[in-house]
Design goal:
This protein is mainly alpha-helical. The chain folds into two domains: 96 residues, no CATH class; 124 residues, no CATH class. Helix content is 74%, strand content 0%.
């Protein structure tokens, strides 16, 4: 029985060595292809792929590309084309019809630029500033007496907007991830609860801040502040090229 086990281990080791050698050989061939001269790669093309290259070159020239530009583009495709040719994948299967590939080259689709976290944070914070400013303005307009707790001052508005902006931006970032990379709902809710508790604690602490540091505005002042914040946000989104939505 021990002899059978040794024989199995030996065969497994040989199989592993063969797979490793095959992988090393594949990497070597790939390295040779990508370091080869374009003229040499042209010679390695199958008849179908050579015809594909000929037609692609023709389409590019007809679409206004210069001969040097078309050659440079096609030379850049040759390593990938030859590599897949070895695997039995022809160019028309790899790139699609010649006309389609030519259109992709002539009119490349630009990938949307991803906005950094800080940009989305400022964008969302400005939106909340406008919303809270509108709300504070309504409260000031409908209240006959000033708020003795001083929780609706301009400093409260700024910090609260920043806190909400950070929390919602983080949440949106998590929701935009692939499902396999998203944190569990339990963890997400826990973070949101912690953030909400932090905001309520902040609001409670603001009751002890003097009006000299956290001055309140009248209704007109809050409405004007809200309008200015929204206008700044509009310009900021345009400047940063932000396409993401704040709310899902």
């Amino acid at each position: 029985m021990s002899e059978d086990l040794r024989e199995k281990n030996k065969k497994a080791a040989q199989k592993q060595q063969a797979a490793s050698a095959k992988s090393d050989k594949k990497e070597e061939v790939t390295s040779q292809i990508y370091s080869a001269d374009a003229d040499d790669l042209h010679k390695k093309l199958s008849n179908k792929n050579a015809e594909y290259v000929f037609k692609l070159n023709k389409y590019l020239l007809e679409n206004g590309f210069k001969e040097e530009e078309a050659k440079e583009i096609i030379d850049g495709l040759l390593p990938e084309m030859v590599e897949n040719q070895i695997k039995g994948i022809p160019a028309n299967q790899l790139y699609g019809p010649v006309t389609q590939k030519a259109q992709e080259i002539a009119h490349p689709v630009k990938k949307p630029k991803k906005t950094p976290f800080w940009g989305l944070w400022i964008d969302t914070a400005l939106l909340f500033f406008a919303l809270f400013g509108l709300l504070y303005g309504i409260v000031a307009l409908t209240s006959k007496k000033a708020d003795p707790n001083n929780q609706t001052g301009i400093l409260t508005l700024i910090v609260l907007s920043l806190m909400w902006g950070a929390l919602l931006t983080w949440f949106n970032d998590q929701m935009r991830l692939p499902k396999s990379q998203r944190p569990g709902w339990g963890k997400t809710i826990a973070y949101l609860v912690v953030g909400m508790v932090g905001m309520f604690l902040f609001l409670g602490a603001m009751a002890f801040v003097p009006t000299t540091i956290n001055p309140t505005l009248n209704s007109v002042g809050y409405f004007v502040s809200a309008a200015i914040a929204y206008a700044i946000r509009f310009g900021f989104r345009k400047y940063m090229g932000i396409k993401e939505r704040t709310f899902f």
